[in-house]
């Protein structure tokens, strides 16, 4: 039977409350793109977050080009990605805070040394590093165990593509069946599911009216074994995953 070795953690709104801050900056650039393309629609940060949560900025722009049927050259893509990253990192370095209760749980896991931990994110590596550094979380993660779909792969991608999870497993010298992922978004959870990694869902940062919907999405659509509302529920969630692993029920 597979044994749990690695906990693979999404960053944005799973470890660090960064999505709302990041999407503020994204909306400004998304609206600039739409205006240049002669499209009248405009986004606020919260609207963009609701529609594209879990995607990195490159993935979001691809979605926008499909939704509004326009194109961007590779040079335009790269320019906007660079501008967005600069804006977001600057904001996170000033305002990022950890998700409620997460620091206590990371401290316990780190001290016990039963499991190893890595960060597996869609966001650019510099953004992830800025987030975890600002909230003093970087002490829990070896720098080589922080992975980005936008920066760590030969060809940049974004969740729900499972490539970043498969890459992380390979780099860590482990197999998907020996890992559990923690994800808050459909795109991230789908990436873990498609990589055949056991999943714990997390709905803590969502507004109350969205939590029930996201519980269903993470559980029914993405196959989460447990969906937790607060990080204090993590030890029990992990126990449930481990029991299912050792009993062969995954």
TrEMBL record:
Name the InterPro entries on file.
HAD-like_hydrolase_sf (IPR050155), HAD-like_sf (IPR036412), HAD-SF_hydro_IA (IPR006439), HAD_sf (IPR023214), PGP-like_dom2 (IPR023198)
Q: Which organism is it from?
A: Coniosporium apollinis
Q: Which Gene3D superfamilies match?
A: HAD superfamily/HAD-like (3.40.50.1000), Putative phosphatase, domain 2 (1.10.150.240)
Q: Which PANTHER family match?
A: PHOSPHOGLYCOLATE PHOSPHATASE
Q: Name one Pfam family in it.
A: Hydrolase
This protein's name: Phosphoglycolate phosphatase
